[in-house]
Amino acid sequence: MRRCWLALALLGLAMATPAQPASPQVQLNGMLGSRAALLIIDGEPRTLEVGATAKGVRLVALEDGRAVVETAGRRQTLQLGAAPARIVSSTEQQRYIVMASGPDGHYTTPGTINGQATSFLIDTGATSVALSQAEAERLGLRFVNGKRVVTQTANGIVPAYVIDLASIRIGDVEVRNVSAIVIPARMPHVLLGNSFLNRFQMRRENDVMTLELRY
């Protein structure tokens, strides 16, 4: 009888616990200098000045094509023109990367390589992370000390360098010791290939991709 009462009490507690509201999905769509930004919050355009709040999202700062936003005490950096990002709780953010596809169907996101800011594009067909020599130089990577190889590109066979990146970080998720290839090609983004993606369990629901860290 006591076990039955306890089970009913626990069931009642579970039913009384309110569901957590869905975290907002936010995109930086435009900037008015360093004073205000056009944000798309859950599909609705809002113009916010620094310090203002709309739909639970506060604009904290603006600079160099990026905006820092905050909701429920959680901050995230958005890059101008990148796909919408979902701001999740701190416990989720440590293991999950959530992003929505852009109008072209691609998944792009800001992040860092070895602590330096860059822009990524998910490429499930790439064997490893790939970046241009120009971007590698901007990030201060000493790729010429890496293993010299040749690789096939749209322009034919070209020389390239295989290196290990100390870290790749997106939001609060950081992966260390990631193999990458540096090639002499013009690339608007760093391609996040399988040397990074294999560390995650990938799920797609409509236009939203979730990467759950496996190890």
UniProtKB/TrEMBL annotation:
Q: Where is the Peptidase A2 domain?
A: 118-196
UniProt-listed Pfam families: gag-asp_proteas
A molecular function (GO) held by this record is: peptidase activity
Write down what this protein is called. TIGR02281 family clan AA aspartic protease
Q: Give the signal peptide as a residue range, or say none if absent.
A: 1-21
Which UniProt keyword terms apply here? Hydrolase, Protease, Signal
Is Transport among the key words of this record? no
Task: Give the matching InterPro entries.
Answer: Aspartic_peptidase_AS, Clan_AA_Asp_peptidase_C, Peptidase_A2_cat, Peptidase_aspartic_dom_sf, Retropepsin-like_bacterial
- Gene Ontology annotations of biological process type: proteolysis
Residue ranges that the Swiss-Prot or TrEMBL entry lists as coiled coil? none
CDD domains (UniProt xref): retropepsin_like_bacteria
